[in-house]
Amino acid sequence: MTTLKRPVHTLFFAIAAVCAGVFVFLTMNGKHDTAGWSLGLVFVSLAVAFRGHEFLRRLSFTVMIFAAVVIALYHPGYFQQWGSFKLSNLIIPLIQLIMFGMGTSMSVKDFAAVIRTPKGVVIGVLSQFIIMPMMGFLLASITQFPPEIAAGIVLIGCSPSGLASNVMSYLAKANLALSITITSITTLLAPLITPVLMKLLAGALIEIDVFKMMWDIIKMIIIPIGAGLLFNRLLSGRSKWLDKAMPIVSMFGIAFILTIITAAGRDSLLKIGPALIVVVLIHNTFGYFLGYWSGRLFKLPESDCRTIAIEVGMQNAGLASGIAKEMGKIATVGLAPAVFGPLMNITGSSLASWWHGRLPGKEKKDKDIAESSINYSTP
After folding, report:
1. What's the predicted TM-score (pTM) here?
2. Which residue has the higher pLDDT, 301 or 256?
3. Which of 77, 90, 287, 302 is the 20 to 30 A CA-CA neighbour of 262?
């Protein structure tokens, strides 16, 4: 079965190359509408091809997002309105569905790590709500973006860590239990902390209604997670189908949200896209760097430092997009979250892959001792 899959996936690299050639040809001849579909097919083909390779398969979902975003940039009408229905109205229900899924996978046991290892949890939560908001404020202050675009940079910094961070922590051989705990706590604290930080750091850029934002986040986070926890409590062990379905639903939801935002803010994104990508990349990578060293500063184990780095660097772009939607500024404030989402998946996957082959200190030491013992005892 494995031997058959490889040639099929390899074939899609060739298809991607052909589509890329068609894209260049159509673009040079001024047929931009058709060229957009060709470029979309390039990314779809790459996403399928990546599934056949252990290292690249982690980027498959992100590449599929790029395919959707490309189509949204070339043909925004498909993702703005269907008949009289505005697709942006789906953003909040999708976020609520994702948060419900998060709730179904949580239990009181997930918070036991706060008691067992409070140091790592406290440092992780504080780093999350200090490093990224301040970095966002600094970047928004030194760039020349319009106020609402700059406010979006601050917003993504003030958001809690995202669900993707748990997956990346697992791949990076970090402390997965700590990752889940930090994600859960920062998410539950978001209704209180995110609006206050936005008022303090972005209040000069746009009008911030703290109490309305608190209620909006409660609707998007607390109520759905609470419903998920209750569902998990009452139907524990009877909903395995839901455990399998929710990750797929969450990935689809995140991709669709980012696509809708891209279509809504297409004109602004085409004007400032490259500059915004650079700023968001700096924001993201400094989150990893400063998060890691905040753990090192307090002498946490290597696996905990990796966890905090990933938790700090990877934000909940979907929630930030939902907040922008509730503010009525999805096409401006929502742009930075739309760029941050796919980008953090690329950098996060790359960092996790690099760490995956490098065991944390104690594990590496134990492995070296075991290998030395085997070599010594071998005649």
Report:
1. 0.78
2. 301
3. 287
